[in-house]
Structure formats: C-alpha cells, structure tokens
Amino acid sequence: xxxxxxxxxxxxxxxxxxxxxxxxxxxxxxxxxxxxxxxxxxxxxxxxxxxxxxxxxxxxxxxxxxxxxxxxxxxxxxxxxxxxxxxxxxxxxxxxxxxxxxxxxxxxxxxxxxxxxxxxxxxxxxxxxxxxxxxxxxxxxxxxxxxxxxxxxxxxxxxxxxxxxxxxxxxxxxxxxxxxxxxxxxxxxxxxxxxxxxxxxxxxxxxxxxxxxxxxxxxxxxxxxxxxxxxxxxxxxxxxxxxxxxxxxxxxxxxxxxxxxxxxxxxxxxxxxxxxxxxxxxxxxxxxxxxxxxxxxxxxxxxxxxxxxxxxxxxxxxxxxxxxxxxxxxxxxxxxxxxxxxxxxxxxxxxxxxxxxxxxxxxxxxxxxxxxxxxxxxxxxxxxxxxxxxxxxxxxxxxxxxxxxxxxxxxxxxxxxxxxxxxxxxxxxxxxxxxxxxxxxxxxxxxxxxxxxxxxxxxxxxxxxxxxxxxxxxxxxxxxxxxxxxxxxxxxxxxxxxxxxxxxxxxxxxxxxxxxxxxxxxxxxxxxxxxxxxxxxxxxxxxxxxxxxxxxxxxxxxxxxxxxxxxxxxxxxxxxxxxxxxxxxxxxxxxxxxxxxxx
Length: 599
What we know:
InterPro entries: AB_hydrolase_fold, CocE/Ser_esterase, Galactose-bd-like_sf, Xaa-Pro-like_dom, Xaa-Pro_dipept_C
CATH architecture of the largest domain: 3-Layer(aba) Sandwich
Helix content: 10-25%
Number of strands: 25
Low-confidence stretches: 1-30
Domain Xaa-Pro dipeptidyl-peptidase C-terminal: 367-594
Number of helices: 13
Organism: Aestuariibaculum sediminum
Mean pLDDT: 89
Shape: globular
CATH topology of the largest domain: Rossmann fold
GO molecular function, one term: dipeptidyl-peptidase activity
Protein name: CocE/NonD family hydrolase
Largest sheet: 10 strands, mixed
Distance between the termini: 27 Å
CATH class of the largest domain: Alpha Beta
Radius of gyration: 26 Å
C-alpha cells in the first residue's frame, strides 16, 4: 500500500501534545490507548477528542480577490470550554464555496448552512477546526458578475477566486495553514474546480454528488431539458430572490455594502441554456470564454491539472439519486491523487437516511479524513481499501463493504437476452419482434410511456447486482430520431415493484461511439458531438448501446429482475403522428441486457 505525503506542520504540534500528556504513562499506557482506538468507516475513537465548546462564534467580512472584487465570507470559530471566549489558537480550516447563500440554508430559511448541508461540518468545530463559507462572485452578498449561476467559477476572472480564498484563509492568525473543503452538489462541483489552479495550502477535499463530465450529467446521452428554469411563484426572478435573502457582513448594518454588491449582479444567467451537443455553444452567456460550456465546465477537461495538484479526495455519492451520481465513479477511476469513494443508500445529498437506517454517520468519515490530511493523524484511513459501498437488501450488518477497486474485481458481466416478455440467459434461436407506438402521456407521473416489459423467471437464489449495467438494443423506428429509456427494477413475488431501481437512456441520433477521452470503465461512450449525429432510417434495423446508471442491490430468492423500455421522457420532443418503434430479439439481431453480477 503506497504512502502519501502530507504536511507535517500540524503533525509536529500534535505529537508534541501527545508527548506532554502521555509520556509519563509509559508503554503500558500506550498499549491501553492503542487497544481503545478504532478507525474504520463509520467508527472513530481514540484519535481525535472534543477539545472546544459545542457552540461557536460567527463573524463575517469581505475578502478582496486579485482583481479587486470582494467576496462575502462567514467564519465559525471555537469557544473555550471553560471561559466561553473565542480561542486565538491557530487551527485547521474547512471551507465551502457556494452559490446557495453562505449563511442560510435556502430562501426564507433561518437555518444555518453549516448545520443543514450534507456533511454538517459544524460538528467538526469542537474537534479543532475553523469553518468558513463563501458566497460565489456575483451572488448573494458578494460583489461582481457571475456568468452562469452555480458554475460561474470555471471561467475567468472567477476561476482564481477559490485559490485566493484558500490562500487568504491559510494566512489568517487563527489558521494553521492546512486547508480543506467540503460540500455537495453545486458545492461539490465548486470543489472540483479548485485543484485546477493548485492553491498550495489546499490539502484535501470531500466532494459529494458532483459532476465529472458536465455534458453527461446535464444532457445524458443527448436527452436534456429543453426549457429554461422557471421563475418562482412569487413573481420574483431567481436573482431577485437571492438578492433579497442575501446576508450582510459585520459592520454593514444599514446594508450599504450589500446594496453596492447587488448592483453588480445584473446580467447573471441562471444556466447556460439548452445546448444539445457536447461541442455546442451557449446563446445565454455573454463571456466568449464560457461559450463552449460543456467543455469549459467539466472537471474531465482539466484532468492533468487536477492530477498534478496532489490534493487528497474523498468522493461521496448515493445510489438513490439520478445523474448527479454519475461523476464520482469516473472521477475516482481517472484522478490519480490519493482518493477514496463512498456509495451510500440515500437520495441526492441525503446522508441522514444512512445514519437513521444503518447508524453510519458521514461526518465521522469527514473527521477521519480531515484529521489525516490536515492534522497529520496517522489513523489508517488511507491504508484501508479505498472503496466503501452499500448494498440494498444485503443481510444485516453486511450492507456495507470495502473493496480495493470500483468496479469490483469479482464482477461477472452476464447477458440476459430479451425474449417474448422475458429475460433469458440463452441466445435466441428464432425470429422475435416487439412493436410499440410511442406515447407522450405522462399523466401518471411516470418519466416514460408506452413501455415494453421483460422479466426473468423468479430467482432460485439471491442475485447480487453491483456495478454498471448496460444494454444493447436492435431497433427500427418510423421517425428519424427517438429516445430510449431502460429501467431495471426488482419485482417481488406479490408483484410489487421495489423503490430501488436504476435507469439509462440514449437519444438514437447520438448513438455513434467514439474514442474515449478518459477511462470510461469499458462502458459504451458517445461523444455527443454534432458532427457525429446519425439519424435513423425508417424501418432499418439499427444497434443502440448505452450504459445504465450504477447500483448495488440484491434480488432476493423468488424475486424477478424486470427491464422496462420506454420511448419518451419529459425532455423528448413530441412527434405527430406518434412514431412506431420495433425491438428485435432474434438470432441475427439479439437485444440483451448486461448485468454486473457478484457470485
């Protein structure tokens, strides 16, 4: 197992403390301490103790960036347990770069962001961490112009904001100099931008539910949302709502500075708009640097810079979220800095369900990780297997497992051929065809309509599916383009369908596969380039291959694996008259599902 280089600045201080309070106890005391220590996923004791009061002091101010623009920051610092006074001792700093209001968790909310956001690091303050939250340039109380709301950090001049904030935090008298970051979704994405500029004091990050290839997330396999973000029901624009709820900094009681900042927010775009192709240009953005948006805002574009940064990363994602779980797997397999990944059971940024159902606390993992990277505590977190994942329906106390790799080395890719309403392991030997008319009726709330369903026979034993499924379909279509959505579900003996499922999709005209720009785990990869578009020919059999989002679940004995194929989603352009689709399932044109099975 390779060793990783970390800053020794805090390590020296930590060892000194251990020496002062433990040297007189002798080897017997050290042996007792080592036996009482525990450090493994979800469990941590004997390494990091509560040294400060549970409450904290909040201060706020502006930080000036290299181009003179000022960003608003909140700083959460420790209070002495006995006196209640703010401690002046230099400590480690964790910060979040957010487009969602640095202070309050949502519009008209008085709940603090640090107490509500996934991985509530306010719980780490008592262990000797300073916490900071910063409003994005051009949003909330920060000055300047933001080009594209929650991804504006990817282009100049905002590209060096996080660098400047990191280095400012490192130089403060209450900072020891080692800096970490945390956050989920947009604030997971904002972390991924920071190592592209390599601030020297950034040592570790804990990004959750973030993008790796932004096009693959926003327009997965060519299917995206055609509409703009709707304005809120209160008649205000999104920008107006943010401005109204922005939090002033200390000393700005009459909001003079806040009003100045808001004047500079004019022209912020809520998104880059609908850009159907990976190499397409945005018509919503004003800065030419941003125009080729999917390329500009993807961490995969900057792999060399990220890999040269040396920043330690702990990536987190949940099975029960949509394409927001797409990025972490590919980042883990392409980023060469010391990295770990955890896959939980909740929804998007929801780690509370893991604690409620299994006792696993993501904050414990943050503490273990940052103690190692920022404090220099040798707690073994980077020596254990780097992959930790949850499996739905696993036996009690075996739901969580460690692995050396993702995907798992023991995974077998098993083909299930489409038959007459069935999924079978045997290759078809005769002719077979299913015909369906596309339906755009979403009155039931389902994302797909006009479905074809295929099922296995009831299983004679438990079947574990862990990894990335994929599907290969031979189709013909009566229109020049169409959307194909494949959903894998668990059907119980009483015909109830489990809430756990996974899904993949493809717009047929984007089907051309291309040379991989990064490690895509040997899954079908579609460039999304406009030059690679191939329209369907009426009645001509055409092969479509696309991946299905990853999952880890056990289909229990007597349960059935169900494949549902639908031909329209909410982002599908409506065609009149509704086209007809054919799925081939014969010996020459076999359609099949590939499942990652763990024996």
